[in-house]
Amino acid sequence: MAVLAAGCSPAPIGVVTMTELAYTPEAIILPADKPGFPVRLVNAGAPPHDFSIDELGAATVVHPAVLPGVDVTYPLPVLPAGTYAVFCGAHGHREAGMHTPVMVR
Ligand SMILES: [Cu+2]
Question: What is the end-to-end Cα distance of the chain in Å, rounded?
């Protein structure tokens, strides 16, 4: 796990690790209005996992499923400040608890 910057307040996170039905860190913070901000998705689990954002509508899946052991960097789409819900779109994963809030600010 790498954090792009450290300080007193939580800094934007560029690395998200996906394991069985969880994202690490649990509360993800991303920068607002910074299209292209690199979000690195690491699948440290056994099945494929993805990183979907409900509020993006048609673009809800911001990356297709990441295969086990794969590490990809995806450029963030434009996200206005707010709180979003990220979840895994793999069958049954969201229902089993694979979701987390994302704060964009
Ligand atoms: Cu999953």
Answer: 21
Which residues are in the CB-under-5-Å shell of ion ligand 1? Answer: 49, 88, 90, 93, 98
> Looking at the domain assignment, is residue 104 inside a domain?
no
d(CA 59, CA 11): 25
Report the CATH number at residue 58.
2.60.40.420
Q: How far is the CA of 8 from the centre of ligand 1 (A)?
A: 31
Q: What is the pTM for the complete model shown?
A: 0.81
The DSSP 8-state label assigned to residue 61 in this structure reads B
Centre of ligand 1 to C-alpha 34, Å, is 26
Residue 75 lies in a domain: yes
33 vs 97, residue with greater confidence: 97
Report how far ligand 1's centroid is from the alpha carbon of 98 (Å).
Answer: 6
